[in-house]
Design brief:
The chain is α/β, with parallel strands linked by helices and 606 residues long. Among the domains are: 7-179, Rossmann fold, CATH 3.40.50; 182-277 and 488-533, D-Maltodextrin-Binding Protein, domain 2 (3-Layer(aba) Sandwich). The chain has helices at 17-30, 43-46, 49-59, 94-104, 123-135, 174-177, 216-227, 244-252, 304-329, 334-345, 361-385, 398-403, 412-420, 437-445, 457-467, 498-511, 513-527, 550-571, 573-580, 583-605, and strands spanning 7-9, 34-38, 65-67, 83-89, 112-120, 141-146, 152-158, 164-167, 188-192, 202-205, 211-214, 230-234, 258-263, 271-273, 278-287, 408-411, 432-435, 452-455, 475-487, 489-492. A hairpin with a 5-residue loop joins strand 7 (152-158) and strand 8 (164-167). The termini are far apart. Keywords: Cell membrane, Glycoprotein, Membrane, Receptor, Signal, Transmembrane, Transmembrane helix. Residues 1-19 form the signal peptide.
């Protein structure tokens, strides 16, 4: 049997608990995976505690953990969403047990909680329990009170729009005992601030002259408020300047319930985050590196060591062929030998009469094998990059950014937060240029690529969407990660909107609404003048011009220059040899060549 953990807090007994259990408690136990029991240490409660423990062990076969002291703290790490809490209220010390419940159920305000009043529950007792529950924002509550002998009444309350205590009819199904009261907030006020931080929250004027609130976070909040019938109360409406620290302070001091334009921040007292609305890293983007000129593509195919090997092979084969030609024909034609070596390596046909000499067959085969490998690899790589744009090495580290002389623009408040978290190395602080929110937004979304920027995941996503309208990228995402985390809206941890907002966020992600709202930001930003009007000029068809043949002309000029040098070397080769070689060394070299020639001729006669 799958084990179900049961938290039994402050083990207690109950006065006339068996009668209540028959009608209500059995339903709760049968429809939950675990329950918690809170009770004081009164004598009458202790007398009945064994009955419930016995029922949990035998009839329901639920394992249990008994806690008998009020200093165990929060229980949320040990329970799941199926928890039901029973709270025994006696006449002796009500405040002490309620304090224990408030501490234990922190961060579990949506827990189904049943308050059982011992003896005769008066109207004043019920109202006091309701007031305490609302002060702690616990709305998923039932109150069982004894009225007459063996007769009980069950109460609940609805705080929207004002607190009203309601009696639960008899024979109500378990599914209807704990309805979702936040489905209709009945214009209950949700306090917030209206600050602007593009693209999360912004105000713009449409082409029709209507003022509209936009931004993916603002749309999430106002869509939730509309669906759940909540009214939005704006606090501090005069100032529209975003102050992240002030917004977080407002939430902590219970001045507002939620800041829909603000994600992240440090979780301080009473402040928590919703389900993540953006996932990714706070990164550094820098200007895209400049493209490499197309005439340099010829040199990109091989590493420098491969080029040295190819050049050495050409010189080696050319020298051997020239020497053999000198031995046979008494002519040292190095330029002709070099041309034939290049033709052999590039797999081009050539009328090489020297191949009749068997000693040159091995050299020719070396040229053919080298040419087959090198030529095909070169052509394959060249054809693969001629249809794209190749860029110079990108900036990926702080060292690269400093070497290229680029500054990183960052919001001043964000920089202070990152620095306090130890995410900015002190060595590289001088690379950052601090500005206010409006200046930062203006530079980023005008695509000013003379700066680098520190961007959160959602802002980088918007920049990427804008970049897709251009044929060439304008920015490059570096390997520098300031913070890597998932961020949600900042909200009070006791807000009645927390659970319903979390469910709403999951729904909009599943239905693709969040993606749509992100894509709507670009046309809305252009309409409101927040993004520079993007004009993408399509390239019209043009015939080939001299500019397109720049690479071919370069090869032709280099070839002609090389041929001219070879002509000079060949024309003045005799004079050069006379100058470089002493007569004695020249005669020695001639004797060797004649000896090789006689040996070759002798082999032919055989």
């Amino acid at each position: 049997m799958t084990r179900k953990f049961t938290i039994l807090l402050l083990a207690s007994a109950m006065n006339h608990m068996l009668c209540v259990q028959v009608k209500y408690v059995e339903q709760f136990l049968l429809n939950s995976s675990m329950f918690a029991l809170f009770s004081d240490d009164s004598f009458e409660s202790k007398d009945r505690s064994e009955d419930l423990l016995h029922a949990a062990s035998t009839k329901y076969q639920i394992s249990r953990l008994v806690l008998s002291k009020p200093n165990y703290g929060r229980i949320w790490p040990y329970v799941n969403s199926g928890l039901i809490a029973f709270v025994m209220i006696s006449d002796e010390n009500t405040s002490s047990i309620l304090n224990v419940v408030g501490e234990a159920l922190t961060s579990l305000l949506s827990t189904r909680t049943v308050f059982i009043l011992n003896r005769f529950g008066t109207k004043e007792q019920v109202e006091n329990v309701v007031k305490w529950c609302w002060d702690h924002r616990m709305i998923n509550v039932l109150i069982i009170a004894k009225r007459l002998k063996h007769r009980f009444k069950v109460f609940t309350y609805n705080p929207f729009p004002v607190i009203s205590i309601q009696e639960v009819p008899e024979n109500t199904k378990f599914q209807d005992l704990f309805p979702d009261k936040t489905k209709n907030l009945q214009q209950f006020p949700i306090r917030t601030v209206r600050k602007y931080d593009f693209p999360r929250s912004y105000r713009y004027t449409t082409y029709g002259g209507k003022t509209v609130i936009g931004g993916h976070l603002a749309k999430i909040f106002y869509a939730w408020a509309s669906i759940h019938n909540a009214s939005v109360v704006i606090v501090d409406p005069e100032s529209q300047v975003l102050d992240k620290r002030l917004a977080e302070s407002y939430i902590e001091k219970d001045i507002i319930d939620i800041a829909p334009h603000f994600i992240g921040g440090s979780n301080t007292t009473n402040v928590t985050s919703t389900t993540p609305v953006t996932s990714g890293s706070i990164c550094v983007v820098v200007p895209q590196a400049k493209p490499i000129s197309q005439h340099l593509y010829l040199f990109l195919m091989f590493d420098e060591y491969v080029w040295i090997l190819v050049i050495f092979a050409v010189l080696y084969i050319s020298a051997v062929k020239a020497i053999c030609n000198f031995c046979i024909n008494k002519e040292f034609r190095f330029s002709e030998a070099a041309c034939k070596a290049i033709l052999s390596i590039t797999n081009q046909p050539n009328n090489d009469k020297s191949l009749k000499c068997r000693a040159l067959v091995l050299i020719h085969w070396q040229a053919m094998i080298l040419g087959f490998v090198v030529t095909n690899m070169y052509l394959a790589h060249l054809s693969s990059i001629l249809t794209t744009t190749i860029y110079r090495p990108q900036m990926n580290t702080y060292e690269d950014i400093e070497r290229h002389g680029v500054r990183i623009m960052c919001e001043e408040q964000s920089f202070k937060l990152f620095k306090s978290m130890g995410r900015i190395p002190e060595l590289w602080e001088h690379l950052f240029y601090l500005v206010d929110v409006n200046t930062f937004t203006k530079h980023v979304y005008s695509l000013n690529n003379s700066w680098g920027y520190v961007l959160t995941a959602d802002k980088y996503e918007i920049m990427s969407l804008i970049e897709k309208l251009f044929k060439k990228p304008l920015f490059h995402k570096t390997r520098i990660t300031i913070v890597d985390s998932s961020l949600g809206l900042n909200i009070r941890n006791d807000s009645v909107a927390l659970n319903s907002l979390n469910k709403f966020l999951l729904d909009i992600f599943a239905n693709g609404l969040r993606r749509k709202w992100m894509r709507d930001i670009i046309p809305e930003g252009i309409e409101g003048g927040l993004i520079a009007d993007i004009k993408v000029i399509e390239d019209e068809f043009v015939p080939l011009t001299i500019e397109h043949l720049k690479l071919a002309w370069l090869c032709l000029v280099v070839g002609c220059f090389t041929a001219f040098l070879s002509f000079l070397v060949e024309s003045f080769s005799k004079e050069i040899i006379d100058l470089l070689l002493h007569a004695r060394w020249k005669q020695f070299f001639v004797n060797i060549c004649v000896s090789i020639y006689h040996r070759i001729c002798f082999n032919k006669k055989k």
